[in-house]
Fold these 2 entries.
Entry 1:
Amino acid sequence: MIHKTILYLFMTLILAACATSPFVAPTPTPLSPGPGEEVIPDVDLVEAISLAGKWRFQKVDRFDISMTASEFDDSQWAEANVPAPWAEQGLGDLVATGAVVVYRLQVGVPVDWKERQIGISAWFNPYYGGVYVNGLLIEPLRKPFAPYADVSSVLKFGTINTIVVTTQYDGYLQFTDAGPLRIGPLAERAVVKIDHEDITISSKGGEVEATLVQPEKGEGLVGMVLDSTGTHGLAEREVWFDLADDLARQGIVSLILVPKQQTPERVQAGIEYLRALDKVNPQKVAVFGVDLATEAVVAAAVADAEVAGVVLLSPAPAKDAAKLGSRPVLLMVSQDDRRGIALQQAQNIAEQASGKATLVTLPGDGRGTFVFTGAWNQVRSALLTWLKETAILP
């Protein structure tokens, strides 16, 4: 009886201490990055609750804020496994159309997270989408790569929370090393460190501004010259950054050219600059031209037999395409771009470029780098598949 009394008193003291003492979150051990890595704040990959799985979803003609409320009745909505591109959710015909799809999920959050910083990573579409937690719109602290937000102040701990995601153009945009959808304590994690450097290259046609995007470490890497001039006549730089960053995380060094005028000499100067970099394999340099950059990119590749391959997005006519020989060519074009005229032009180039040409038809009517917004997954997948199939990317 005495032993039971002592045990009872002991348990009472423990429970009292737990009731009066504040929760003390564990102090995370500082993370040390490895060679070529950087440490970023993000939602912890170990302690987090996965948000992947079945969500309620519905295509809507007009989004209404009432759809984000916990009490909103979504019982008649369909279910889909996310994250996934729309094509894998039976919504492939909506890709690149600007349609709006709303997703809803209810998830419980542990009460013992209350004294910690809690983040959420739930951006299916970082360009034209929104994330709501318990009816409040939250903004990511970093996007599009590994986006997250601190939601500590909007969560209900020890009970159910409602998460709503709105998307356009496609349901989920893929990025290397972005991590799974999740909610949990904030922590640190190591990712490939990417360097951006604005440079000026000398060429026979005059100086060319450019941005070099590369992983901090590496050797024998693939190099790619990225060159886009749209129908507005201006060379583009920033629109390449998301793709160039994603390529860098997979061991590809990109050089984004911003020429005042498109000439083969300026493109060739970019090719030679990449070849001279210590970390780039000079036999693995390819060129990627968009829209009005097509002719200059093709002509530069024709003049340089060592160019490993040519990628053309929304290509303009290229009179020298037949001179590319047996080198691999990837053409990507929206099926309804200029009511099919662009597709016919791409088919003509593919026929001229012998049996090494691959033609990928993209959804929608987007042209040039605008296609990155409407058909990101398709462009990214087609490019990486082509690079591996042609052995340009090991």
Entry 2:
Amino acid sequence: MNTLTERFGWWLLRSIAAVMMFAGAAVLVAGLAATSMPVGSAALSAIGGILFQMGALFVVLGGVAIVLSRPHGRLSLPNERAETTEAGRPELGGWLIVLAVALVALPVWLVLRLLPFLAEWRRVADFLAASRWWDGANANGAGLVVVPIAGALVPPLLELIALAGFVAASAALLRLLLTRSPRFPRVYIVCVVLLSALVIASVRGAGAAAVARTAVERLMEDTKSRGDEDVQVRQGLDRYSSAVNTAASALLWTSGGYLIWMPAMFLSRRVRTTFARRSGRDDSTPASASGVEAITSPPRWPG
């Protein structure tokens, strides 16, 4: 029977997957609207196609995560079909020790790799707080200025969410692994599905950012902006592209470090025995009569 903590954990995973599905539906509609506009630039059509892909990805993988997050569903894992006593459960060993080390090393490496990316986010937060641009966003249509700013922040925001997801998921998975919880393989699979959706969306978002940068550079060439402004804009675009692309690459490599363990959750005998369901009795302890039974039922004389 699931404990309150386990039920909360499953509820949290399903809630995250449901939010991903709803967000994917919204992005899907935005992508369809952008690609179906009768008049639009090639850059807008390309970005709309990327949004369509991201939306479909969120809807599909979010739905898969919801199905997989039901431990009593029809799809059971090998360890959930096995049963063992606590005394018969093997200790952590072999490649599971390597997996435990990976669950610590991968998020640490990712955070260190993305320190410049996080520094850029701090600069953005300080700028937005100092400029107080939101205060006048609703005045006389000034909110239209918010649209390109929000659009530019979507790719790095996805990357920031993916970074936080890797750190949080690794902490939870490490605890389940060290306690040899029977829920570990299923939780690992669900987390990898959700994180993969965020990583792929981050990579596609970086592609959309590259398309938008090319469009801005062409617009600058056509309008022949002043030299100082042109240099400042290009420097800003360079920093933005460098931060987004670096984060997308690091997230992709980190995701690969989690994906390589996925087949073992289905095929490994060590996973099946280490994380097998606990039986209600312990066969290693021989049954013995109680004190009352020993008095009332003494052993018989042979004969």
